UniProtKB/TrEMBL annotation:
Annotated protein name in UniProt: NADP-dependent oxidoreductase domain-containing protein
Protein source organism: Suillus fuscotomentosus
Gene3D superfamilies: NADP-dependent oxidoreductase domain
Lineage: Eukaryota, Fungi, Dikarya, Basidiomycota, Agaricomycotina
Highest taxon of the lineage: Eukaryota
Active site annotation, chain numbering: Y50
Domain NADP-dependent oxidoreductase: 24-286
């Protein structure tokens, strides 16, 4: 089992330290969520764009109230890019709640700091630029954040936050509205420590949730679970490499949401181990300047998002930058 630790958000709410990510294959998530909740998970991370919230809703019906009460679960979902405008945002939240069979979310995040033109599905294609997503360059992050604030005021969302946002993006929201996001969910693993962002979030009171804590095979590269240092530390602790990487994120103060649809891995990932300072430093040393790697960059998606989100070298040729204000 996990250590059962919960972490404080700036809203006064608490978030369980370990959760289940659900960005997984369709038709397997219903079973995964049921297995997770029956084995102690109380934090579930969802999103409209994963196209499986209906599966999560079916799983929730099997475990509420027989295994847990609704209040014992922490359920996060995310607003997709095509719904950054007020009307579409309200409609997407209502659809999310309908799919899940819930009356409220514990946390609602802006999934990405970029808007798509609404009305043409989740991944609208640009009408004249082949192979590109149709970006909405008019709706700013602050516009969307003001809509999120209204969603929170509706009572359908307990806390609001962001995902994949940089220091500049978050500060823009705070400066314009005075409302600080409760959470920034980011790609976080030893190859992408983002120390400046982590320090900034701590300073302004934004909690970090780590996705892809095991690395990512999006680029066909070896997973961090195969790294020799991670395997050495795991062997020393009598743990799995995945447990070591989850523990690395926990050591840094994150909540961590490893994903899996395999029963054995779901259960194993929830069995926490604690890293000593020495073991933490060993794992941290995997990532050094010049060796950092961000796996999730939409500029190389198909269709491509022609926008610079992270100021990565790969994004230098992007046509557009994020419209903050």
């Amino acid at each position: 089992m996990s250590f059962g630790k919960i972490l404080q958000l700036n809203t006064g709410a608490t978030i369980p330290e370990i959760g289940l990510g659900t960005c997984s294959d369709q038709n397997k998530v219903e079973s995964a969520v049921e297995i997770a909740v029956r084995n102690g998970y109380r934090h579930l991370d969802l999103a409209m764009v994963y196209l499986n919230q209906d599966e999560v809703g079916r799983a929730l019906k099997k475990v509420i109230p027989s295994v847990v009460t609704r209040e014992q679960l922490f359920v996060t979902s995310k607003l997709w890019n095509c719904s950054h405008q007020q009307g579409p945002a309200e409609a997407e939240l209502d659809e999310t709640l309908k799919q899940l069979g819930l009356t409220y979310l514990d946390l609602y995040l802006v999934h990405w700091p970029v808007a798509f033109e609404p009305g043409n599905g989740l991944k609208p294609l640009h009408p004249t630029k082949e192979g590109e997503a149709h970006l909405d360059l008019k709706t700013s992050l602050v516009d969307t954040w003001r809509t999120m604030i209204k969603l929170k005021e509706s009572g359908k969302v307990k806390s609001i936050g962001v995902s994949n946002f940089t220091i500049e993006h978050i500060q823009g929201l705070i400066d314009a509205t005075g409302v600080t996001p409760a959470v920034n969910q980011i790609e976080a693993h030893p190859l992408l420590p983002q120390d400046d962002l982590v320090a900034y979030c701590k300073q302004v009171g934004v909690h970090i949730t780590a996705y892809s804590p095991l690395g990512n095979n999006r680029l066909g590269k070896p997973m961090l679970t195969e790294h020799v240092v991670v395997k050495e530390v795991a062997e020393k602790l009598g743990a799995t490499p995945a447990q070591v990487l989850v523990a690395w994120g926990v050591y840094r103060g994150y909540s961590v949401i490893p994903k899996s649809v395999q029963e054995g891995r779901i259960i194993s990932n929830f069995k926490q181990v604690a890293l000593s300072e020495g073991d933490y430093e060993k794992v941290t040393a995997i990532g050094v300047p010049g060796n950092f790697e961000r796996f999730n960059i939409p500029f190389r998606y198909i269709p491509k998002w022609d926008i610079d989100l992270f100021d990565e070298e790969l994004e230098k040729t992007a046509t557009y930058r994020v419209n903050i204000v």
